[in-house]
Amino acid sequence: MAQTAATTASQQQPIPPSLALPPSQFARLQPHAYLLAHLSPPASSNQPSIRANGRSPLQFRVTSANAGSLTHTNGSAVVRVGDTAAVCGVRAEILHTDDIASWSVSRPAAPESNKKRRKLADTNQKPTQESADVATQNNKEDGSEDDQEDESYIQDFNLLVPNLSLSTGCAPGFLPGAPPSTLAQGLSHQILSLLHSSRLVREDDLRIWYQPLDLGAEDLERRNESEQMDVDAAQNDQQHKNREIKAFWVLYIDIMIISLAGNPFDAAWAAVVAALRDTKLPRAWWDEDNEMVLCSEAVSEAKKLSLRGMPVASSFVVFEADAAAGWRAVVIPDAEEEEMIDEAKRKGLQRRWILADPDGYEEGLSQERVSVVVDKKDGKVVVLRMEKNGGWAVGPKELRQVVDVSAQRWDEVKLILEQC
Amino acid sequence: MDRRRINGPPSGTRPAVFASSIKTAPGAATERPKRQRQSNELRKIFLKTGIIPTASGSSYVEFEPSASLAAAHSSPQSLIPSSSSLKLACTVHGPKPLPRSATFSPNIVLTTHVKYAPFAARKRKGHIRDTGERDLGVHLETALRGVIVAERWPKSGLDITITVLEAEDDRWWGDAADSHDASWGMMNVLAGCVTAASAAIADARIDCLDLVAGGVAALVSDDSTKDEEGPKLILDADPAEHQSIQSACVVAYMPGRDEITELWLKGDSSKASLGDGDQRVGHEALIDGAVDAARGAHTVLTEAVKESAERFIRQAMG
Amino acid sequence: MAATLPSLAIPGQRLGSTTSYAAGPGTHVYDAVIYASIAGPVIVDQAQAKSKAKSLLTVSRSINRQTGATPSGAATVKPTVSTTAPKPATTKPKLKYNTLPAVDSVVLARVTRVQKRQVTVSILVVLDELSSSQVSDPSKTTSDNDNIESILSSAANPENHSSSDELRFQALIRKEDVRAVEKDRVIMDEMFRVGDIVRGTIISLGDQSFYYITTARNDLGVVMARSEAGNMMFPVSWKEMRDPVTGLGELRKVARPF
């Protein structure tokens, strides 16, 4: 795997002869020069530019996924991306609408007003969402008509609760038992906002209904069942005048990063998607006698979530040949400088590399970072989110390349997630 | 409210209640799983070292699921798992410098942490360590302290962190919450922690006197047990498989020296006996049972650590 | 006798009696029996024929190819017997019981702070005894503190770059330990700058938080440094390095290049 590749690469790669140091010491003492020596082998050697870990610049690490192995979850998955490993467990609990403070106030008298309220909420949220997310307009293509207004409860009532933990001994420097580090908090929030903006989970899957007994008991039983089977049951609202939502499923999505060797976000997100794909919710109904929601334990009656698409995250860093780039005062490169870089590139002298799926070593040597989340629908690439920070090297041209690579990566990850 | 975490609904949520569990007549469909193993037969242990390369040493331990759980996995009928099987990951970081505030220590300073993942057990665990988790950390530390050759690593620290991904049950889910009156599952977890930590420390090549292994024995009574027979002593008990547990014992044991570094015994062990003709009774019998279980874990440990050493040699040779 | 030794030992494994062997690193003695305390290849260092000393039994934590120790891990391989070439007793490498910095260890460290009376450094590499004394081919030794794979995977702590120094052992170079001559005329700013890589030897385990390091030898001092312009400099004399781009010189306590 990557291990053997790394050792052979470090043996082949030329190391400046003046430094009579074994590669490992060189790697530790002069990390920047070490990575640079790998990426820019002398022209005479005819060797391709290769990273210290043996990968080509746009190569991702070997990825594997395994779902459904944790007993006490509604869905679970383990995803390994190289030496970074994430375990995700989804646990569903019940939120009674009686317990929602704002529910009785905003409680829909009729489905009609309900829709209006939700629309209002939607427009209120739009501006803030758009600043964070590049493109969500594509959602219309999703199919079901109820999509447009069905998400506000998920956000308003916190029905999706992702938390990522790094306090697992996954890397030195993260104290076990300490409160979540800044990195862990940041990752949790990124996952939450991506769950919301990608609208991966359908609110309809999370509703638990009550149909008052104005029909025969048998009749009701049958109807309940058919509703469970029918994804778009919500659309029959008008027919069920008395039907009301009595509770919601709340999905606690906990991600434990078991091993951290760079790029935790891609692995964590893949684990979340794989675990949600594995998630089954029991058939649930409001039981009037007990005044509570009851569930059926029968696996045959449980239902999988019907997720919207399969968003895949791909992260990149930019490595600059100029070691001091990070130390110097920030100056936006002028056209002249850009020209010089292009010129150097023509001569085969690369000064800047975009590295896909960085390991921890590379992350420590780069200031600039790009993260892209894409999905594919009918062969069409849809960018769900794009985040770029800490530099200016990546322009529109590079972004296009990054999106192309992410789209290729989507195909790879899709196969892995579908088979797990 | 904890602002550093994503919080769920402010009113809190309730775990799912299954209709079958509140019916007045006990459901005939679900029965307590039965132990399929001999009384001295251990579940298989899967143990692998070196899974986490950013750590100086690491290991992963998984107990083979009990027969009923394995059957439920292969052809799922019910959403309620019949039992549970231990899964945990252990990392060792160090030897590393002690924190600036620490005083000079001529020995290595051991720190142990045991934390359950929120989804590790039937009941959702909080993010902050509870007393049970702290207890486990303390028991683990005593189990290991007597094993490490601490004076060989002056003024340095060693952090041992265990993440429990799936814990053992304290009792069968169908029993009333207080029916077993103690957290028996925790003892199995501790045994797993000891074995996992031992493998990870060896993987980090920190000097040890021996590979310390964990083992559990318990005194149980079942519906089938006739009164005159009394409670039965079994090794590596899965609490979900028994109607009542009278007593249980977990040891951390070094076979090479025949030494117990940690012992934790709960309940009334006076009726324990190892079987026909065996003189040992009471707590002695129970402890010896736990030691036998630890010996079983030690053979698995030996293989895993050998494998770790071979991997290291291969790596070093390129 | 030697044939009964395993090629590969695990902690707690019985290796031999103290009547026939002396216990070396990686082992411990209990009840007059030598046991392995770490997992690794068993190495017997045969005593010289003339001396009455017993053969030294060690479980190695570093694979040293120069001694020809090539246990394959297969159980059939006989324990490696390395005969130490007759050498003056003074050059015999000291026994190493751990991978921590010890007195006389040669280390490579990065300067993190320069003060008037001392500089603080963060130890990056503890060099093997052998690789420092026989620099001819240092790539032939590997010890567990320089496994390239773990270096590459380990994150420079993304939280806070300075805290990665907290994971490394800290040391001080006091003003009087910088060089052997003209000690009273040492000006720290002209010896070291933050970021320099320094070769030094440990003179004392120091207090709870710092080791003490000396550079008072010709072969010790700054081995790598960047100029103020950010370029790697090359040494031009024992007290000066030069930036190849700007041509400007900067003062340092330079280690003699090999």
UniProtKB/TrEMBL annotation, chain A:
Pfam families named among the record's database cross-references: RNase_PH
GO cellular component: cytoplasmic exosome (RNase complex); nuclear exosome (RNase complex); nucleolus
A molecular-function term among this protein's GO annotations: mRNA 3'-UTR AU-rich region binding
Localization of this protein: Cytoplasm; Nucleus, Nucleolus
Compositional bias annotation for Low complexity: 1-13
Composition skew (Polar residues), residue ranges: 122-138
GO biological process, one term: U1 snRNA 3'-end processing
Stretch list, region Disordered: 1-21, 105-151
InterPro entries: ExoRNase_PH_dom1, ExoRNase_PH_dom2_sf, Exosome_comp_Rrp42_subfam, PNPase/RNase_PH_dom_sf, Ribosomal_Su5_D2-typ_SF
Domain Exoribonuclease phosphorolytic: 153-282
Signal sequence annotation: none
Keywords: Cytoplasm, Exosome, Nucleus, RNA-binding, rRNA processing
Keyword RNA-binding applies: yes
Membrane-crossing residue ranges in chain numbering: none
RNA-binding recorded as keyword: yes
Family the entry assigns: Belongs to the RNase PH family.
Record-given protein name: Ribosomal RNA-processing protein 43
Organism: Aspergillus ruber (strain CBS 135680)
From TrEMBL, chain B:
Cellular component terms per the entry's GO annotation: cytoplasmic exosome (RNase complex); nuclear exosome (RNase complex); nucleolus
Keyword 4Fe-4S belongs to the record: no
Keyword list, A-Z: Cytoplasm, Exosome, Nucleus, RNA-binding, rRNA processing
Exoribonuclease phosphorolytic domain residues: 41-206
Top-rank taxon, per record: Eukaryota
InterPro entries documented for this protein: ExoRNase_PH_dom1, ExoRNase_PH_dom2_sf, PNPase/RNase_PH_dom_sf, Ribosomal_Su5_D2-typ_SF, RNase_PH
Official protein name in the record: Exoribonuclease phosphorolytic domain-containing protein
The organism of origin for this protein: Aspergillus ruber (strain CBS 135680)
Automatic annotation (TrEMBL), chain C:
Gene3D superfamilies given in the database record: 2.40.50.100, Nucleic acid-binding proteins
Annotated ranges, domain Exosome complex component CSL4 C-terminal: 100-205
GO CC annotation, single: cytoplasm
One GO molecular-function entry: RNA binding
Pfam family, one: EXOSC1
Chief site of localization: nucleus
Domain of life according to the entry: Eukaryota
Region (Disordered): 67-90
Protein name listed in UniProt: Putative exoribonuclease
Native species: Aspergillus ruber (strain CBS 135680)
